[in-house]
Specification:
Length: about 450
């Protein structure tokens, strides 16, 4: 029988050390599953479009529906964990994620798949904010540093593994499932997580009485207005509406008796940390997109080969993420990123196409090492000083900032890439020299964001 821990430190005392680390592995596996799902579908989009006879707008919504629902529901999902129990909401989220994955795989038409993806994103929004809350409540001191390092490594592996796993599944085509296999792969992972987490994760919750429904609804509409334009690359006037609604949300929360996001959370430390998060993740998301175009449309690599070329970056990210919190070296990490990005600029401009992949591999490994040194300490800095009773809200705010950064980075860096290229990327007939020029210019913009990340990380 599970005992609810009102005292946040009771979660540390409950259970053995071995049980806590097994619980950590299970929640990190769920994190990997949820983040992988956002990336793995991208590789399958052409197959989905052909098999379901979907329009380009419909296949855009297959990806955007998940991203939007996930981002919009994160803060509310975190608050639900504070209110009803992080372990309980985590298991509910995993269960819903498995069920919606099955629904996605069985979708007979594009509208059904889009709807299932929206519900899958909402399930991720219930599941994933609880992970940081569980870590915050189950670990302290050096153990928490190691746990956050594992969380950072998981993010790095998941972000890189999507293209590789998607390409492998499509090439393997188990049981003739085609694109449907990319959703069914979540089922055994989710069942394993439920079995292990259900036995090892200790319950914890915050001292809250009710959910701020007005705040939750207003924040959902505001975030939709902010994220829809970058996700769908149109509807820019909605951005102004989103900003106005966020200001209105802040005014409503200031007067609320039990606010969704207590404004006391937004200290100078947390606000500066969130700005660093936006600079870091927007640059990474934009760089991944422009490099994928450079490799596939410019150098003629297949999606699978392109994903494998990203592997050194993911491995480097994972290795230093495990050490990054202990080393606490985000500024040197940002410097490594800047050196790597400067190398990519030179490679794109000066190295012949047939030799570029060989030169890019060590540059990407260096970038991954730098990113890992930034990621884990950055998470710790954002969450440091947060009352464990508010861990769900803080985790939701952090993940929401990450999603806003990812969407904005893809939209802004991708838009700059297309503008410099002078046409739609991947259009036949564009010479390689144009891709090289666009990659060099756009990577320079990412380099600026890496420098900004280092400057923001210098201030505590």
């Amino acid at each position: 029988m599970v005992t609810v821990m009102r005292n946040p430190r009771a979660a540390v005392r409950g259970g053995t050390d071995a049980r806590k680390w097994i619980a950590l592995v299970s929640v990190l596996l769920a994190t990997f599953m949820g983040l992988l799902d956002a990336a793995i579908v991208t590789v399958a989009v052409p197959s989905i479009q052909q098999d379901l006879r979907a329009s380009f707008g419909e296949v855009q919504l297959v990806s955007a529906g998940y991203t939007l629902a996930y981002a919009v529901g994160l803060v509310t999902g975190g608050r639900l964990g504070d209110l009803y129990g992080r372990r309980r909401l985590f298991l509910v989220g995993v269960t819903l994620f498995v069920l919606t994955s099955v629904a996605c795989s069985a979708a007979p038409a594009a509208p059904v798949l889009i709807g299932a993806r929206v519900f899958q994103g909402l399930a991720a929004a219930v599941m994933l904010p609880q992970v940081l809350s569980i870590i915050q409540n189950a670990f302290t001191g050096p153990a928490r540093a190691s746990a956050l390092g594992g969380y950072g490594a998981t993010i790095g592996l998941a972000s890189i593994s999507g293209q590789i796993a998607g390409g492998l599944l499509l090439a393997w085509n188990p049981a003739g499932l085609g694109w449907r296999a990319v959703f069914l792969v979540n089922v055994p992972i989710g069942l394993l997580v439920m079995a292990v987490a259900g036995r090892t994760v200790t319950e914890s919750r915050g001292a809250r009485s009710r959910l701020d429904l007005a705040g939750a609804g207003l924040l959902a509409v505001a975030l939709t207005a902010l994220l829809l334009p970058p996700v769908l690359s149109r509807g820019l006037p909605l951005l102004a509406v989103g900003v106005v609604l966020l200001v209105l949300f802040a005014l409503v929360e200031r007067r609320a008796a039990d606010p969704l996001v207590p404004l006391r959370l937004l200290t100078r430390r947390l606000t500066r940390g969130l700005l660093t998060v936006v600079a870091f993740y927007s640059g990474n998301a934009g760089f991944f997109l422009l490099l994928a175009y450079h490799l596939q449309a410019g150098l003629g690599q297949s999606p699978l080969d392109s994903g494998l070329i990203f592997a050194p970056l993911g491995i480097g990210f994972a290795v230093t993420s495990l050490l990054g919190k202990r080393l606490n070296a985000p500024v040197p990490g940002a410097a490594l990123m800047a050196v790597s990005l400067a190398s990519v600029v030179l490679i794109a401009w000066h190295i012949p196409p047939r030799h570029q992949v060989a030169w890019l591999l060590p540059a990407l490994a260096l970038s991954g090492l730098g990113e890992g040194l930034v990621a884990a300490p950055l998470i710790g800095r954002v969450l440091s000083g947060v009352d464990p009773a508010e861990a769900g809200a803080a985790g939701g705010v952090l993940l929401t900032a990450t999603q806003i950064a990812n969407a904005s980075g893809v939209a802004l860096i991708g838009g700059l890439f297309a503008r410099v290229l002078g046409g739609t990327p991947a259009t036949p007939g564009i010479p390689f020299t144009e891709y090289a020029h666009a990659t060099a210019i756009t990577t320079s913009a990412v380099l600026v964001l890496a420098v900004l990340t280092g400057l923001l990380a210098r201030t505590r």
